[in-house]
């Protein structure tokens, strides 16, 4: 690659004097190895359409030990796939996104583990055409997973199709019902009565183009966004039984009747009887932190678990953040101040109503303060961004030689357009820092105590894991030998459960707290009570 011939061709690539196909061919010849996995797809030169899927052969060059990947190596994986162009807005860009299914020899979908991700048949090769950091989706999904909510796993790769270099891509899981993805009960066509009818369902608010499914209207169209209803994601409109369709539509309308009714704050009569509040809080936080202009109307997924597996509506998984994190001027998404949820442009109005519930607002404030000390700590996020930038440094150079879009507007990019990859990274990090600081000051709500301002003469206490499912461990460093009695209270201060007394010795202690009563998902206060002090920690039950 250092010979004079390559230098000559490289100059033509950079200056844009070659056609796209010639660039692809030259860069494919230059791509002999990469620090990223290399995915090579061969369709025998058959075109790839939006639909139906095109038969293809896929080889992946990848070393699990992290060593460099060479196209002369034996492939880590080979197999047959069906591939298609995917996306709505993304399908109009030069660098296309693809969806593919792993197939057996008869063309039937077969679950396959790819790049160490759990086995499934449906996958996406995401182009990141207008996100020149390649990170905004990856970052958001990582944050969601760290917060305890499933989002798609991702792996960076370089893509070659029919011996033509296509650029830097992200392999990611397609949102799908699966034990390792959206883990809800499988709903069969015969499940039309009793508890089997109650779940699981995945619905979404989205454009009707792209991968949209069948649509059902809402009885509350003024509160449901510009599309006035939802699409069936699972089961799909082709597979859902009419009784199942009627059930999920009625459940959503019942939830909305409770939310917009006069008793909406009542824990039994209001929306909390039908919605998992903590999931709505986490969804709000991650979307407002990133100020995603698409949220609450596009790529907005909602899950309804089976009644014996959670029952209530849950927000997520999060999806599609290419315009977020100050990558778009659309609807003021690059303006540091303000929110997305209350913009009058056809948003789902659920959060506007929930923000009128002081308990919801206070719980959200507590959750934000907790996350800011942990998963959403700015230093941690920016270190993660820096680590990805180092990892992608080589591949991004090849990508921008093929797709020279740095310094240009690609689909609503925020002005001024950064001129280099490092400028893009710096802009993203700056947004993370400044937006977090703005929310620290402006996010409404009151969060009292909760261990956030502990007195220096009180024991240091933490809870692990947090969020928890059934049991958790209280880790506490005491200054003296003493006795404590932990107690669990709800966010209104009402006593839920009092644990047995425990003896502490001076130094570090670990106390396993179990025998908990059956708890609703949400936020609770763990009070640590002794004769000399009273401390409080915020804990989250999944």
The profile of the biggest β sheet is: 7 strands, mixed, barrel
Number of contiguous helices: 9
Oligomeric description of these chains: single chain
Mean pLDDT, rounded to whole units? Answer: 88
Number of domains: 3
Radius of gyration, in Å, reads 25 Å
Low-confidence regions: 449-458
Could you give the count of β-strands?
A: 22
Percent range for β-strand residues: 15-25%
Give the strand order of the largest sheet, numbering strands 1, 2, ... along the chain. Answer: 2-3-5-6-7-9-8
For the record, give the distance between the C-alpha atoms at the N and C termini, rounded to a whole number: 53 Å
Computed structural class:
alpha+beta
Net shape: globular
Question: What's the topology here?
Answer:
Elements: H1 4-15, H2 20-30, E1 33-34, E2 38-42, E3 54-61, E4 69-70, E5 77-86, E6 97-103, E7 122-126, H3 136-146, E8 154-161, E9 164-173, E10 201-205, E11 215-217, E12 229-234, H4 242-259, H5 277-290, E13 300-304, E14 314-315, H6 350-354, H7 358-372, H8 378-402, H9 421-442, E15 460-464, E16 472-478, E17 482-489, E18 495-498, E19 502-504, E20 507-513, E21 522-529, E22 534-541
Describe the overall structure.
The protein is built from nine helices and 22 strands. It has 542 residues and is α+β, with helices and mostly antiparallel strands. It has three domains: 4-178, no CATH class; 194-378 and 438-442, no CATH class; 460-541, Sandwich (Immunoglobulin-like), CATH 2.60.40. The strands form five sheets. The protein has a seven-stranded mixed beta barrel. Helix 5 (277-290) crosses helix 7 (358-372) and helix 8 packs antiparallel against helix 9.
